[in-house]
Amino acid sequence: MSTINPMISSLFAELQQVAYLRSTLGLLGWDEQTFMPSGGAEHRANQSAQLAGLAHERATQPHVGEWLSQIEAELPRQPVDSVTAANLREARRKYDRATKLDQTLVEELSRCATLAQQAWVGAKKARNFGQFLPWLDKMVGLKRQEAQAVGSTSGVLYDALLDDYEPGATTAEIQAVFTALRRELVPLVAAIAEAPRRPDAAILTRSYPVETQQKFARAAAAAIGFDFDRGRLDTSAHPFCSGIGPGDCRLTTRYHEHHFPGAFFGVLHEAGHGIYEQGLAPDQFGLACGEAASLGIHESQSRMWENLVGRSRAFWEHFYPAAQQAFPGALQEISLDQFHFAINDVRPSWIRVEADEVTYNLHIMLRFDLEQALIRDDLQPADLPTAWNERFQEYFGMTPPDDALGCLQDVHWSAGLLGYFPTYALGNMYASQFFDRARTELGDLSTMFARGEFQPLKEWLNTQIHRHGLQYRASELVEKVTGQKLSAEPLLTHLRGRFSPLFGV
Amino acid sequence: MSTINPMISSLFAELQQVAYLRSTLGLLGWDEQTFMPSGGAEHRANQSAQLAGLAHERATQPHVGEWLSQIEAELPRQPVDSVTAANLREARRKYDRATKLDQTLVEELSRCATLAQQAWVGAKKARNFGQFLPWLDKMVGLKRQEAQAVGSTSGVLYDALLDDYEPGATTAEIQAVFTALRRELVPLVAAIAEAPRRPDAAILTRSYPVETQQKFARAAAAAIGFDFDRGRLDTSAHPFCSGIGPGDCRLTTRYHEHHFPGAFFGVLHEAGHGIYEQGLAPDQFGLACGEAASLGIHESQSRMWENLVGRSRAFWEHFYPAAQQAFPGALQEISLDQFHFAINDVRPSWIRVEADEVTYNLHIMLRFDLEQALIRDDLQPADLPTAWNERFQEYFGMTPPDDALGCLQDVHWSAGLLGYFPTYALGNMYASQFFDRARTELGDLSTMFARGEFQPLKEWLNTQIHRHGLQYRASELVEKVTGQKLSAEPLLTHLRGRFSPLFGV
Predict the structure, then answer these.
(1) d(Cα A505, Cα B372) in Å, to the nearest integer?
(2) Which H or E run includes B328?
(3) Do strands A248-253 and A231-235 pair parallel, antiparallel, or not at all (unpaired)?
(4) Distance, CA of B169 to CA of B162 (rounded, Å)
(5) What pLDDT is attached to residue A114?
(6) What does the pLDDT look like over A275-308, one tens digit per residue?
(7) Sheet containing B241-245: which strands, arranged edge to edge?
(8) CATH classification of A201-348+430-503, choosing from 3.60.40.10, 1.10.1370.30, 3.40.50.720, 3.40.50.150?
(9) Mean pLDDT of B220-224
(10) ∠ CA(B471), CA(B473), CA(B478), 5° rounding?
(11) Which segments of A101-248 does DSSP mark as H helices, in order?
């Protein structure tokens, strides 16, 4: 036969079968977090382990590798279209990654993650790092093994982990933009701390009835473009977005009567992820061009809707009258300016997930530095609390009173997610870069938002970003869309532009 | 090696893997009926088809059959305990059934069921049997093929279908008890139709706010013993109970503000199924002794809690004050006797699922007769409406005005569930047999119910029935528990005992 197309079709059909298994695994996970009765936990663990095993087994079948090799050998003679080329490129990346890890290591990582998370929950509750230390030790060791097995073209061990979340990114380039960002953020945070004006943030902790919050947040998610015929919004202990598959994307949040921003901006954030998932090409399901470009790009979508749109004054010019009507007890006497200042309060705080837009990235850089050091073996897990606290003092000018408010606060390391943190800050930078470009192309977004018009931005994102999936890797995508490489400048410009006038600094 | 135990372990581990796949398939189905957004339907069909295929493939692997044969050959020399023997017996039954059907027929049946159900929905809506006829024709043909492929020891074709739902049951024995039952029921129905007293059934269609109905029904399900730490209750268009696996059993119902009994007795019914599922031995998951004995036995549990318990006067001696408090607008002025008579109204009606306890079984017998005739090829699908209406006149003394109220009312035939209907009436008979025995062993159940004590009955069912799973087939189980063979007498005694005093007949 002179054509490689039938083999490509077989390969892609096989990858799609793997994706269906992963999609069902995703539904098991969603159900576990939302509706599963507590008594079903053990059975669910068995169901999930089975599907994870089947997916891994199917993805690493020798004939998948053989097909890939034969197709790659033919490619110089029979070039394929760029979508197919991208699907093949990423299929190779995933296949190599999956087959480089032997089954023992995969199982060891999975078991360690389960047990380490249990230990972490206990240690955090007891504010006792010592309880978690043996598990952190074990996990760092396993992740080093994983990184060694996978390898990286740069030779930097950490890059092998990063590549799983941000394909093609390197520590060196991230380090460069983070340094530029930190140089400006630390003095900005310090200046705001000394600012002459402060918002009355207490208005956000008045009584906001949960049922009304649910309706209000749902309406906002629909207004910005999340399609509830192809998705849901439910409640879970930890907010997340789970793209089950074409036509089915599920968001969750959590509500507290006395904290309005938590659920509301949480929903905008998850809806941003959801709009991305809903914008992926359904006919590319199971292939790279039907999946998100990277976690950083994913986060750029959630942070854009949460912060650049959702905390803008224009957004609230449209929504604030409805908010006052929904929550008359809390907001009747509060002006739009007071409210807008309150939702944009900036203050150094211990906990990343509660951090404001300005300090948030410092939380990420701290973790990025420390996890690199752990993987390089330059930092011993036992020394983590000291290293954390020293660096926290350096970035925020204060020292956590205990490890629960310090190095024990996040689930990531116990879950084996080393290399994941930087994608959050990358997301913030990409978001500003994309948003600037959208303004250039679409004109005055603020006027649109103030009129409740979010569709132009949403459709621009659909066209420019979502529909490509992982046809382009993150760094290429940002350059293709904005004409610029990854840069901290647009984010810094946004932060200065928003917070200097508010705080008078 | 001189022992067959390792091979039995391997076989059972394999069967358990099949059961995990089916369990996950069950969750996909539950989600589809409850929470899935409409846009997810096509993707869900693909997910489900994949898992159904994997489960079938795994269950019919040649080595499963080889293990079974080798184990069976060794059994005379190395007898196993009775639980293991039962698990092997049913593994053989399922393996034979699955492997006797070739892949083409299985796929054809699956596709025909999907399309025939669509056609049925349209035909029922249009009250036009002709639209459904070609699909019924095709389905009956396929089910005859299935029955021929499976075969039966009795030589009766219909038995091969029945065996899938009621292992070991035969048309002949069911026909015998049905005949006895019908002989008594037809005159009882006629007598009640002429009765001097009638209840005021309209009190049940007053306003019963849905949210209060939900709370009230949930509390009743919990009171009779459904464990909400190991289960849920949600809303769906068609009520069902789905046992996902150990520790996770899910009920659904539907609520109408102006029809109290629909949701309430629906929840008691599904909770009865759920209590059975929750009472199965978790360590037997995936094996016969961890699954329900038959659909008839399953239905005996749901009908017992719904009717024998839930429509008894003693039950409402306990619950009626709470009902009056929950629905003061509807029930404040209504006496317990009035309410109890209303929920026990008897009148011939067109629709099976809305039928009362007395007429219900006649609906079943009619279907049983007709589907046997279809499978025997004694009745042509085109003649179904006439046959239905003639028989309906004979049993109920009236003729359906159209086929939507006649032979088009149920989904079963379009879904390929021929052989399923008799299990509903078997369930009613088994329920009365078990209930009589429980009274003999536990003493005055009515006094217990009036005090809100349902645990003794529930635990008796757990011990006598649930924990055995399918260790004993239905006919053996009823004999083991009650000392009697399947019989219509206890049900008839119950019906006369309940309805003669109420209606004065």
Answers:
(1) 86
(2) helix B328-331
(3) parallel
(4) 7
(5) 85
(6) 999 999 999 999 999 999 999 999 999 999 999 9
(7) B231-235, B248-253, B241-245
(8) 1.10.1370.30
(9) 98
(10) 105
(11) 103-126, 129-150, 157-165, 171-193, 210-224
Query: Residue A493 has which token pair?
Result: 């410009």
- Answer for the pair A450, A318: CB distance below 8 angstroms, yes or no: yes
Please, what's the largest Cα pairwise distance for chain A?
A: 77
- Examine the residue annotation and report whether B166 is marked as an active-site residue of this protein: no
Q: What is the pTM of this model?
A: 0.94
SS3 readout for A65-130: HHHHHHHHHHCCCCCCCHHHHHHHHHHHHHHHHHHHCCHHHHHHHHHHHHHHHHHHHHHHHHCCHH
Distances, alpha carbon B139 to alpha carbons A375, B119, B381, in Å: 63, 12, 10
Question: Using CB atoms, which residue from A24, A43, A244 is nearest to B248?
Answer: A43
Cβ proximity of A392 and A407 under 8 Å: no
Extract the tokens encoding B127.
């009250």
* Catalytic residue numbers of A, as ranges: 270
ipTM above 0.90, yes or no: yes
Q: Which residues of chain A lie closer than 8 angstroms to B31, CB-CB?
A: 27, 31
Confidence band of B411 (pLDDT split at 50, 70, 90): very high
Chain A residue with minimal CA distance to B30?
A31
Q: CB-based contacts of A117: which residues, under 8 Å, 6+ apart?
A: A411, A414, A415
Q: Is A257 at the interface with chain B, CB within 8 A?
A: no
pLDDT of residue B1: 47
Check CB contact under 8 Å for A43 and B244: yes
DSSP B78: S
The owner of tokens 């507290």 is A256
Q: Is A235 helix (H, G, I), strand (E, B) or coil?
A: strand
C-alpha dihedral (A454, A456, A462, A464), degrees to nearest 10: -130
Q: Could you tell me if A267 and A218 are in contact, meaning their C-beta atoms sit under 8 angstroms apart?
A: yes
A231 by DSSP, 3-state: which? strand
Q: Is B222 exposed, middle or buried (0-12, 13-18, 19+ CB in 10 A)?
A: middle
CB A36 within 8 A of CB A42: no
> Quick count: other Cβ atoms within 10 Å of Cβ B190?
13
Separation CA A347–CA A192 (nearest Å)? 8
| Alpha carbons B373 and B240: distance in angstroms, whole number | 29
Strand B248-253 and strand B241-245: the pairing is antiparallel
The one-letter code for the residue type at A232 is: R
Residue spans of the domains in chain B: they are: 5-100
- φ and ψ of B371, to 5 deg: -75, -30
Residues of chain B with C-beta less than 8 angstroms from the C-beta of A54: 54
How confident is the model over A408-445, as pLDDT tens digits? 999 999 999 999 999 999 999 999 999 999 999 999 99
Q: Point out the catalytic residue in the list B14, B90, B166, B270.
A: B270
Q: How close are the terminal C-alpha atoms of chain A, in Å?
A: 70
